[in-house]
Amino acid sequence: MYFELKRLAEIQAHLPSILEQEFKINDFVSNSSVRELDNLFGKFIPDIWVGIESQYVDKLYRDAYYNYYGSKLNAYQRDCIRLSFFDGPVSLEDFRSEEGAAKLQSIYKGFVVIRPTAPKVIGRNVLHPTIFKKDRPQLVTTAVFSSSVNGIKLTIEGFPHSSQDAEFMVCAETTVWSIMEYFSNRYPDYESTLPKKIHSLLSASSIERQVPSTGLTALQISFALKELGFGVKLYVASDDLKEQAEIQDIIRIYVESGIPVVTAIRNKTGVSHVLNIVGRTDFISPLVDIPTLTLSQGGRIFNYYSQEAKYLVIDDNLPAYSLISLEDPACNYTGTVWKDCKICAVIAPLHKRIYMEAIRAKELAILHLKTLDRLTKLPNLAIRVLLSSSRSFKHSISINPDLEVVHKTIINNLNMPKFVWIAETGTRESFAVGKATGMLLMDATEPKKTEILARFLENTYLGKIDGIVGEYNIPLRPFRIHQNLKSY
Predict the structure, then answer these.
(1) Strand, helix or coil for residue 236
(2) Three-state SS for 359?
(3) Which of 1, 64, 69, 340 could tie 76 with a disulfide, CB 3.0–4.6 Å?
(4) Where in the chain is the domain with CATH 3.90.70?
(5) CA torsion sign, 299 to 304 to 305 to 309?
(6) CATH class of the domain at 230-350
């Protein structure tokens, strides 16, 4: 293995010769590969330094090589190039001292593997969201990944990404792979999965060969994720405006919950594609002043998710964290063939112990507000529904600076399942500054029952204290909302 350091601009100037030297790629194909790499690097912040490793053994590409490319007449190289990115100047001496290693970790921005599958040469990569230029804060679900660069162990937060090679891995396989790579690095319940295993899972139920890949349907992706350990929930929608609004709301709820969702898009000309939605930008507009429901005593309920935002996608045709509009999910594609693409299916890879899904959680929260309003007139409220592990939720409550010790003690003493649905309520003004005024807690393991775990609303607590269920007068001031996404 050979390692050297250069500024990113220097590497861009020599990309054709690098590809020719390492992969024996001819000039015509090399130009397409260079355009793909330049499109990625052009979105980076300035002053990026790069560590270049040649003869790099990449697990994802080797899986494709041994199961497909190695059996072709034309010779494909077995090894890859890996580029490691740093936000500022680095030297070889930094890789040979404790102080240097600490410096490298503080400015490490991730890596990109370049594979010999021209013109689609961008392979496995994990990039920190802050390596990309952006005009507003972004909230992303990320995991921590480890790598060793020139002998130094480094970690990076990000979401795994790869371009498709158009033969062994197309959009469906890269989507499933990135989901599994994310979950395996974040939770011990899951294992990293390579494309060959995905093909093997589907071969028993298919009447055609899996390789070369022609893609997977939403049903096949759902089946693969179910076989890989998830309690999958599949949602489908037509082009009907009401159905589109409903499925977009489902995406918003799951993404806010920190769950990456597999999203299939298509149009009437036959174009179809699959991508992962992994986060959103900070809201662009305030809550829409149109209620989704009027209660019996006149109070109006607003949807927190009516605030406009762009959503971040892991799309194998685009750089990681590219932005889309849910109304126009193919907005990054310029060809007329992509015109009028709509979301046709959403696959939520839920933990197998989550039995209540998003639509039911939202319905239950609204049902409880309706019931309560018949007893006590509720004011105008916006509602924010999201899912959380009880461990993350209790940690968030414990460090919330706006809650009193009494609130923290009550919630931490509640007997909760592994996952809970949270319905935070607030005014349009409170949510505008990231604060709620009340909350409902729902058992994510109960798909049918209408009981809730607890409620803080209008200075009243309904739930258990010392094992006794009751309604207690406990004042509550606006408090910081629970956040599963990380802000960058």
Answers:
(1) strand
(2) helix
(3) 69
(4) 230-350
(5) positive
(6) alpha beta
